[in-house]
């Protein structure tokens, strides 16, 4: 007598991965034997599968009932962004040899790194040089003589962010292996290090000027919970702002990927509220890139390149398209005005600067206000309560209505009369209100994180870092004067 199978082929089974309160379908690692079982079961018609086999933009949905999930993100706010048409998060392409060097850098750490990305001018160009392709060919090609020669001619520090599960445990392991990476604070042990990391600033602990495999790096350590909270709620915009710009993800995590999708669509929505009815791609990506710098006190001192935002966008326009084009295509209130290129080749052309138009209808823009990140949105609400002189009882009702409730409620995503009133403000007034909310979000975490650098990096490294920033500021001003002439 044959034993009955544990899984009945008469019952459809949908395989998904839940992360950050929504279902995502990407980067789900499935054992080979299990995939073969799924494939054979599909042929028998008894199994509905919904998974990704680590192929670029190849999410598989074998049942037609699941293929209608490419509807508009605005029309269906509960739709997981990973189910929108287009790639869920385009991979940013850099030089293969540089990518291998960055990956090998992670192997230098025995402490477990769950999520990691590299960013900054050491990975992506931030100069006024024109690019012929989206690939950045930096100085670091090989971890041998080539790297040393490049470092001698134009040394750059490559910036990393490491996402970890247990902060104190991670620092304990890293202190045992790399005590020289830490300042005198490391002598107090992992407990003191993790306390400084989590209690001060934006929850990131930086170790700068670390030599690994012949290159100089700066790495910041952050708890995954802190990272995801900032990405979804914009509590500080410290790391969310970095991930709104092109970065090279070296180690991915499903929960962070899902949270960053929320971060990207939020950045796009905020930029639309800051922009007029008609604008260019360059205007859009410049506005997005500048969000995390509004209110950053470092921009008021001679420690940052005054052309920093313009240089980031001008040299990385194709990479910005990879991040935001799939999102633009799924928003019903914005579209390209002069979309004359139907092929994909224009995406890689940094010299093309298309124009876009957006619907300024207060109802639709009120929906955008309602769908901003919760912590950031409440700052905007409190500002407007004072401006409109709304009684506290009435305002409490507005806040209660905006609180996240049942997952199945769609109404909570629709802007009410309060949000529509905010969206109906004259454009300049609305921009000022949004910028004030951004300043209130960014200012204190940025200030406290900067002072924390004295503890985490030490006085000598901090002074060296400030000196390099001042040099970049001077070069940026010289570049601006040259361009003006």
Automatic annotation (TrEMBL):
Region annotated Disordered, chain positions: 59-84
EC number: 2.7.7.41
Composition skew (Polar residues), residue ranges: 59-70
Spans traversing the lipid bilayer: none
Bilayer disposition of the protein: Peripheral membrane protein
Enzyme class, broadest EC rank: transferase
GO aspect biological process, one term: CDP-diacylglycerol biosynthetic process
Cofactors required: Mg(2+)
GO terms of molecular function: phosphatidate cytidylyltransferase activity
GO cellular component terms, semicolon-separated: mitochondrial inner membrane
Alphabetized UniProt keyword annotations: Lipid biosynthesis, Lipid metabolism, Magnesium, Membrane, Mitochondrion, Mitochondrion inner membrane, Nucleotidyltransferase, Phospholipid biosynthesis, Phospholipid metabolism, Transferase
Localization per record: Mitochondrion inner membrane
Pathway annotation: Lipid metabolism; Phospholipid metabolism; CDP-diacylglycerol biosynthesis; CDP-diacylglycerol from sn-glycerol 3-phosphate: step 3/3
Family matches, as PANTHER family: PHOSPHATIDATE CYTIDYLYLTRANSFERASE, MITOCHONDRIAL (PTHR13619:SF0)
Family statement drawn from the similarity comment of this UniProt entry: Belongs to the TAM41 family.
Protein name listed in UniProt: Phosphatidate cytidylyltransferase, mitochondrial
Species of the source: Uncinula necator
């Amino acid at each position: 007598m044959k034993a009955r199978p544990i899984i009945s082929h008469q019952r459809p089974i949908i395989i998904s991965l839940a992360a950050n309160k929504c279902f995502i379908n990407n980067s789900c690692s499935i054992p080979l034997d299990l995939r073969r079982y799924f494939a054979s079961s599909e042929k028998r018609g008894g199994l509905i599968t919904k998974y990704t086999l680590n192929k670029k933009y190849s999410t598989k949905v074998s049942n037609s009932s699941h293929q209608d999930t490419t509807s508009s993100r605005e029309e269906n706010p509960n739709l997981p962004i990973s189910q929108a048409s287009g790639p869920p998060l385009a991979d940013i392409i850099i030089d293969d040899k540089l990518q291998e060097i960055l990956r090998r850098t992670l192997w230098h750490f025995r402490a477990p790194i769950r999520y990691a990305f590299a960013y900054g001018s050491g990975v992506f160009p931030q100069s006024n040089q024109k690019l012929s392709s989206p690939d950045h060919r930096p100085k670091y090609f090989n971890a041998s003589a080539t790297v040393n020669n490049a470092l001698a001619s134009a040394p750059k520090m490559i910036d990393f962010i490491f996402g970890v599960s247990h902060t104190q445990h991670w620092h304990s392991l890293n202190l045992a292996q790399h005590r020289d990476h830490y300042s005198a604070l490391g002598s107090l042990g992992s407990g003191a290090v993790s306390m400084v990391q989590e209690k001060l600033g934006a929850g990131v602990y930086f170790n700068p000027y670390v030599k690994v495999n012949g290159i100089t790096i700066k790495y910041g350590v952050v708890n995954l919970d802190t990272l995801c909270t900032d990405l979804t709620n914009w509590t500080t915009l410290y790391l969310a702002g970095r991930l709104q710009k092109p970065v090279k993800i070296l180690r991915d995590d499903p929960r962070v990927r899902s949270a960053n999708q929320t971060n990207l669509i939020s950045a796009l929505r905020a930029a639309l509220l800051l922009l007029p009815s008609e604008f260019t791609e360059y205007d859009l990506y410049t506005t997005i890139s500048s969000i995390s710098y509004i209110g950053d006190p470092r921009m008021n001192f001679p420690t940052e390149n005054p052309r920093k935002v313009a240089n980031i966008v001008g040299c990385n326009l194709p990479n910005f398209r990879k991040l935001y084009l799939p999102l633009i295509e799924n928003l019903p209130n914005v579209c390209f005005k002069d979309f004359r290129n139907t092929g994909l080749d224009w995406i890689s052309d940094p010299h093309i600067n298309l124009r876009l138009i957006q619907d300024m209808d207060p109802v639709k823009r009120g929906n955008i206000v309602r769908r901003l990140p919760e912590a950031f949105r409440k700052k905007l609400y409190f500002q407007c309560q004072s401006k409109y002189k709304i009684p506290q009882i009435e305002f409490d009702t507005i806040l209660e209505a905006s609180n996240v409730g049942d997952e199945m409620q769609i109404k909570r995503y629709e802007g009410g009369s309060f949000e529509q009133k905010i969206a109906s403000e004259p454009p300049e007034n609305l921009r000022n209100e949004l910028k004030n909310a951004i300043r209130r979000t960014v200012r204190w975490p940025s200030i406290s994180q900067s002072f924390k650098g004295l503890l985490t990096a030490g006085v000598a490294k901090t002074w060296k870092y400030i000196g390099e920033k001042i040099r970049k500021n001077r070069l940026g001003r010289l570049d601006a004067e040259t361009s003006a002439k």
